[in-house]
Amino acid sequence: MRIVFLCLLLGVMACSAPSPHFAGIAPTRIAVAGSVFDVRVRGELAESVRLNPQYAPRLGPIAGRAAVAMAFASGCEVRGVLGDQAVQLGQLDCGRGRGPPLRPTPRYDCIEIPSGVERTDGTEYLDYDCSPY
Length: 133
Fold this sequence. Notes:
Layout: H1 2-13, E1 28-32, E2 35-42, E3 45-50, H2 60-74, E4 77-83, E5 87-93, E6 108-118, E7 124-132
Antiparallel strand pairs: 1-2, 2-3, 3-5, 4-5, 6-7
């Protein structure tokens, strides 16, 4: 029983494992239009590993999102994307050098909280409690 559990645990941990060329490089996690990628950059190549479960039987619907994630992580233009729906390899064009990585706008999860304060017309002001995710 312990061996089965250990095999399952190792299988889950390997979901975001990089290919050998990108081993040892810390990933940058980026979400683009509902897809979540771990992106690693080495030289003129970038590798993205899609992490979230979603229907994607081929590279077509995912390639554009992967290219955007690679551009965010590297600060370079992406010339082409190859791979499949799970792991993509992008060729980067950094021109005169790599620019600073682009930082995506943080996303927030908010809930409404009644403030207990009313305007003169009787409507209540609302407060929001937000946290990044």
